[in-house]
Amino acid sequence: CENITRAYDIVLEVMNTLDFKVGGEVAENLEQLYMFITDELTRANITGKKEHLENVLKIMNTLYDGWKEAVEILKKKDAKGA
Length: 82
Known about the structure:
The chain contains 3 helices and no strands. It has helices at 2-16, 20-47, 50-81.
């Protein structure tokens, strides 16, 4: 319960940093995804079913991979520009 609450708080904090003026459709899509994640975390907390946490884990792993790839792309651009 405590760890689910921590995860929930982290996702809410990340969601609060979305900039819809700059991010546009991407920010809107991320907001929907984060809302789904918080819903799944709530369901996991209430029901104790691991399926909800597995759904969150799959999404978070995909997001992590995407962010890693984005960082690598930016590093390559910086290296070319330097």
